[in-house]
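Appendix B, example 12.
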Amino acid sequence: MATGVRERVVSRLSEPRPPRKRAPRIFEFTFAAVGLVVGLWFFALSLTPSLLPRSGYVQGINSGVAFMIGYGIGVAIYTLYRFLGIPYARGRVRMVLLAVSLGFIGFTAAGAIWGYVGWQNEVRLNFGMEPLSPWGWPTIIIVAALVAALILIVARSLRTLFRWVDDLLDRWLPRRLAVLVAAIALISVLWWVLSGAFVNAFFTTSNWIFSGRDAEDKAGVEQPASALKSGSPDSLVEFDTLGRQGRSFVSTGPTADEIAAFSGDDALEPIRAYVGLKSAETLEERADLLLEELVRTDAFDREVMVIATTTGTGLIAPEGVDPLEFMWGGDTAIAGVQYSYLPSWISLLADQEVVQETSRVVFRTIHDHWSTLPEESRPDLYLYGLSLGSYGVEAILSSADILNEPIEGALMVGPPFVNPMHTEIEAARDAGSPSWLPVFSDGRTVRFMNQDGGLDRGNAAWGPTRVTYLQHGSDPVVFFHPDTALDEPEWLMGERAPDVVDSMVWYPIVTAWQLVLDLPAAGSIPDGYGHLYTRLENATAWAHVTEPADWDEARTLELTALLDERAAAREAALEAATP
């Protein structure tokens, strides 16, 4: 009996394998029906609104990628279905099912195409932008077709490579084992290329591009003459080593005369201390150099001192610090250290540990000196961080360095979705408060605000340490999360933020992809939305966090009007001076 079984197995293995159905060639105009159905559905969903308005070419990229994601999912499901040997419809039944599916999807896509301009204009009008012209459709279609075609070519090239490896292994291995081994081998090679060679090439190229940009100056930037600014002739830090954003920070900002003209009283020249990546070899040396600058300028005799964690490029935003200097009559010192010259979205991938380490070392160095000073004469100590800078501020707030000598407060603007403390606070918010503007622990220490305010919420007394998160509901830097691909975010449930349109609907995978595209566009929309925070919002936050004497909302409005005029005059002067 065993001999008979052995003979049947040998006979079966020796039989020639049935010919495999030929797959479409790389440039062949042939498509899988199931893939087309799912792809068209994803295309229709990609036209629905997201957090931010989209231009024609961005929408084209969005729709092209969304179509190919759906096409790939459809092809994968059908391939797995066939691989497992599950019965499927044939003949007339198959044609009817396909016709009904295509009809339904076609109807859905037509409705989405019809409603697209209206949806986009709802978002645009909500942001105070000009409405979208229907003539954007040619751009959308052409870009979407090109993007989809490029992805399809790459996918079919990979499939051709897989077939070649599979056919090679098929000579020695059972059919399904050969498929499994070929898939594992190809995925391993792709992972090595993307996570190794591609990533290294990306960061090498980025470093080359942005290191050159870091050596350039913004228009109108000049070496400061005041001894109270880093990079001045009296400074311990050379001006050329401060980096592009550092040189801008120390050469701009209000003067004592400008502040006095606003306040009507005598004012001090604000202190701005900054150390660039090239100012010293190591992080510890840069932190020590910053402390020496603060001591040199008598910064510890000021009323307010702010330790600012910069963004990836080294930016300390004027919208965030100029209001504070006016509020306090110039009796301030603001200090920062550059840790990178890459944009924040790249630093977010490469420099998270660097941000945290820089923030902690700089804070510890300054805080250790500050804590030795008499409590009645030392300045009130605050933290500030915009975008990725807020990630560094959280690293300080979660450290043990401030337990014995706590700070007065912190302002974090546009906190990225990677901020762990922000995520934990949002998850533990008080019942009934929305995720886009939480109330935490009745507002005892941490409070949230947006463009409409919000810092008055909470029944508990606020203090002695006041921590504020300033965030827009339409900021994808704050509200994007990979989990959005499979789980509907809470900020789309129930009451929504005032800058998130009601017509935005969550769809698996598609919404996550739309938010990914929103990320680079978050800084190219009108101020007060997305990742652009206004002087009024920052001034309102600082007024609540630092509580300057004799200050009220009217003074905040007066100050921001002055700052807006000042910024407009500077831009006009620079434009007039440009050949």
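Residues 22-184 form one domain. The chain is about 50% helix and 5% strand.
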